[in-house]
């Protein structure tokens, strides 16, 4: 018979340790137990006794209820799309997946009390292997029309994605080669995107966002087996979509009278796109031929622009607002105080703050004197086992 804390969720422990880049031996030292115990707990072969269980909660700063609550995630059947998968360490991809899992869980719990923006995203339903560049351009145009963007530069792509029902989050992982990851959730039928900020500037963040949007629009029907087999094709398609959504063919082409590096620098603040992205777009639209493109790429390299371009520091990275506003709305509308909300969300406070784009130390600020405590729709265990809840107050999340 399995001993220890009943209901202990082994996957939670796996996530926490991997997210903290901690070995089983290191965790065993902190919990003051044998390394073999950590392995057994993570495999679900046994559960920690009460003293070890409480030490785990203290080490990671998580609530006891959260370690007993079944994780809410859909990645077992839905692929997570990574850029430059072959160049990113396996550990970095796993940590990014965990961040996306946790963002999905935070979002799901917040949606029990808040109405998120209506999902308004075009979806390609055919065989991705038959997608032509022309069709990808058409889907980018459809997306712009649906979102009423016209032919002008997108002012803030991340906030535009959020306003149309996509949940976007970001954070630092400690891996410079990680760009982002996205997937469709089977929990709430919404798309999610995590953007890595370790080596980002404003221009790169915008393209990363557009790239993940490409996966969301083009690849909802892709299976995990498809993803593993056709990775390079899927990446190329998402890249083409990103270029098309950021640099629409008709209006961008009019701006590029003379495709030189100097021209791209002049256009960079207007279109909020890098010179590299504009060179590639000119190739896509056949504004320049292969010889001209090669000269531009060589000139860009000769000027030392491969790692950093001029004006890179001039664009502030776009910030997600949806989860941040959701948390603050619950607190400011006196539905939950910060301490209770942190307990409901369960995971480490620093992780919640980062994923929700909240100020560091947000949950340490005392607000109990200003909040009237109200009951949640259901307790934490019920939330994790059912997508339906009864009673409670639902607050619409207004667009700003």
How far the N terminus sits from the C terminus, by CA atoms, comes to: 55 Å
Which sequence of SSEs, written as H and E, runs from N to C?
HHHHHEHEHHEEEHHHHHHHHHHHE
Q: Count of DSSP E strands?
A: 6
Strand content: 5-15%
Strand order of the largest sheet: 1-4-5-3
Q: How large is the count of helical segments?
A: 19
Topology:
Layout: H1 10-19, H2 24-31, H3 35-43, H4 50-60, H5 64-67, E1 81-82, H6 90-110, E2 114-115, H7 133-146, H8 157-163, E3 167-171, E4 180-184, E5 191-196, H9 202-218, H10 224-229, H11 231-246, H12 249-255, H13 261-271, H14 275-284, H15 290-302, H16 322-332, H17 338-345, H18 349-355, H19 380-385, E6 395-396
Parallel strand pairs: 2-6, 3-5
Antiparallel strand pairs: 1-4, 4-5
Helix pairs in contact: 2-3, 7-11, 9-11, 14-15
How does this structure look, described?
With 400 residues, the chain is mostly helical. The protein folds into three domains: 58 residues, 434 Repressor (Amino-terminal Domain) (Orthogonal Bundle), CATH 1.10.260; 234 residues, no CATH class; 75 residues, no CATH class. It is 49% helix and 6% strand. The protein is built from 19 helices and six strands. The strands form two sheets. The chain has a four-stranded mixed sheet with strand order 1-4-5-3, with helices on both faces. Strands 2-6 form a two-stranded parallel sheet. A hairpin with a 6-residue loop joins strand 4 and strand 5. Helix 2 packs across helix 3, helix 7 crosses helix 11 and helix 9 crosses helix 11.
Task: Name the features.
single chain, 400 residues, mainly alpha, 434 Repressor (Amino-terminal Domain), 3 domains, four-stranded mixed β-sheet, two-stranded parallel ribbon, 19 helices, 6 strands, elongated
